[in-house]
């Protein structure tokens, strides 16, 4: 058994450092969790949007998974951008035998509006991957796709969270209200109880990578054995601080600040 909590992310890259694998590894590091990564797609993107995408060949995704799984135990893992059905199939095959919490961030579209997943893969994600997840963390458009229902209010967030667990088979659902107006309210349904997490809405366009940062925080905390509602509370506080002190760098939507919860570090 490891002494050090270890977590794995399976996702695409962001060379500008705000989202994807880079955001996940920065977050794991901030939570003193040893981070590992499987790259699914190399994405040429920055704060203004996605310029190009190169998908890693399926056999290399499989080999990366084998390399990590055969060598280093981890206590939680997450998926982010998984662009097509072939990738999803190999991931389902490799993760099904694992007996540690799986956190699925059902990444579909970046803040810039660029699609990160093939149209025909969305259904596979909902039908085959989602039921394997201990927790799924959709934003409003992703939850609308999964449930087929429009989401406009907090009550709609609650209904979506319940439906994703009861009808679609996730262990728990955290439906994020970042795309609604007013307070930033997220709803967790853990199969028993609704939990509500809220913060003031911060007036900023620097929200690149917020979803990745949030789900990576939860993954790191679960890898340390922290119970789900407490992990989400701590992760919500972390992502809120990271948005509040986000960096105005780049020409578009700037990234979150992973040092924001360190008292002595950079605040903007
Ligand atoms: N302007 C904002 N102020 C405060 N919190 C926000 C803001 N925008 C998003 N959030 C929060 O950031 C987290 C990520 O949510 P969201 O933006 O909905 O996801 P995604 O990045 O996947 O689209 C959630 O906790 C959400 O409530
Ligand atoms: C490679 C990669 N994965 C995921 C995203 C989407 O990130 P997210 O945290 O949902 O935030 P935005 O970047 O959409 O604001 C991405 N851009 N790239």
Automatic annotation (TrEMBL):
Keywords: ATP-binding, Kinase, Nucleotide-binding, Thiamine biosynthesis, Transferase. It catalyses: 4-amino-5-hydroxymethyl-2-methylpyrimidine + ATP = 4-amino-2-methyl-5-(phosphooxymethyl)pyrimidine + ADP + H(+); 4-amino-2-methyl-5-(phosphooxymethyl)pyrimidine + ATP = 4-amino-2-methyl-5-(diphosphooxymethyl)pyrimidine + ADP. Its EC number is 2.7.1.49, 2.7.4.7. The keyword Ribosomal protein does not apply. One of its GO terms (molecular function) is phosphomethylpyrimidine kinase activity. Signal peptide: none annotated. One of its GO terms (cellular component) is cytosol. Gene3D superfamilies: 3.40.1190.20. PANTHER family: HYDROXYMETHYLPYRIMIDINE_PHOSPHOMETHYLPYRIMIDINE KINASE THI20-RELATED, PHOSPHOMETHYLPYRIMIDINE KINASE. This is Hydroxymethylpyrimidine/phosphomethylpyrimidine kinase.
